[in-house]
Amino acid sequence: MKVTIVGGGGVVGSSAAYRIAQDGLASEIILFDTRRNLAEAHALDIDQAMVHRANTRTRAGEIEDTKNSDVLIIAVAVAGRPILPSRASSFDDNMGILADLLEPLATRSPSALWMIVTAPVDAWVYLIHRHFSVPREKAIGINGNDTSRFRWAIAKTLLIPATSIEAFVLGEHGETMVPLFSHVQVNGKALSLNSEQRRQVRSSITDFLLQWIKLQPGRTAGWATAESIGDVLVSMSAKDDRMWSCSTPLNGEYGFQGMSLGVPVRMGPEGVREIIEFDLDPAEQEALKVSAEVVCEQIRRGQDLFKKVKH
């Protein structure tokens, strides 16, 4: 497997490269970044770290080196830009970076699985799917850290191990995400949280980004995102039956189409092999509708920006 990480010199890109290299599934990882020095430094560090673990080769590269990639991870963002409360607010800046890169990447790796980290994730997934005729099973957005934080918040509230919890977040990778309290399981058994427990969990996950900004760490949450990327790739290779939360284009699932939303999926060697449709309670269904409307507006804005940049 050949993996290209666009933005490989950044926190998310380099963290993802390290996680993927450890799993030993990739024969080659290309770190493509305008900051070539950072990409080369990370590549050297990761390559040397793997000498006792895996045979994956990690190196910095240019656009031509991405040719025939099996996986394209898009983790581009403006370097040094402050983290903003709304992920969608970075659309303009990120469009300026990606507009000229997407077509060359698509042309050089026509069969690749696209894994989108760049914000706003859901809109980018759909735009890439439509503008470059990427099959919907080959275009996913990485939003699994929302689900991880949901499980973390439940564990913190109930004082139980997070590894015993199964729970998912649907919808936008942003402020309108929808935590599914109706489908929480602990050790395989359904669990109902009371109103105060739900309030505490909601507070933990909805306030996370603001708390992160207050810390002023000068970096995004790279390790959580890298774990989501690595888990999905391992699941694809193992052909297991595990469910992961990913944003993917919908064609009637959950009553939506013409957009990409975060939903539970099962992965296969070719990408998304199944979208899991949970029965939602009325409040969750209404919240998902609101989330879908927000993503649709992001897609419309993205299409307008894309046209302006290309002209």
Uncertain stretches of 5 or more adjacent residues: none
Class of the largest domain, according to the CATH hierarchy?
A: Alpha Beta
Mean pLDDT: 93
Instruction: Calculate the terminal CA-CA distance, rounded to whole Å.
Output: 36 Å
Question: What is the CA-based Rg, rounded?
Answer: 19 Å
CATH-level-4 superfamily name of the largest domain: Lactate dehydrogenase/glycoside hydrolase, family 4, C-terminal
Decide which structural class fits the backbone: alpha/beta
Strand order of the largest sheet: 3-2-1-4-5-6-12-13-14
The arrangement of helices and strands along the chain is EHEHEEHEHEHEEEEEHHHEEEH
Write the CATH fold name of the largest domain: L-2-Hydroxyisocaproate Dehydrogenase, Chain A, domain 2
Under the CATH scheme, the architecture of the largest domain is Alpha-Beta Complex
- Give the number of domains: 2
What percent of residues are in strands?
15-25%
Q: Enumerate how many helices there are, as a single number.
A: 9
Overall spatial form: globular
Helicity range of the residues? Answer: 40-55%
Structure description:
There is one protein chain. The chain is an alpha/beta fold. The protein has 2 domains: 2-142, Rossmann fold, CATH 3.40.50; 144-300, L-2-Hydroxyisocaproate Dehydrogenase, Chain A, domain 2, CATH 3.90.110. Helices cover 44% and strands 20% of the residues. It contains 9 helices and 14 strands. The chain has helices at residues 11-23, 36-49, 91-108, 121-131, 144-158, 195-206, 208-215, 222-238, 282-310; strands spanning 2-6, 28-32, 57-60, 71-74, 113-116, 139-142, 165-166, 169-170, 178-179, 185-186, 189-190, 244-251, 257-268, 271-275. Strands 3-2-1-4-5-6-12-13-14 form a 9-stranded mixed β-sheet. A hairpin with a 2-residue loop joins strand 13 and strand 14. The two termini are 36 Å apart. The model has no long low-confidence stretch (mean pLDDT 93).
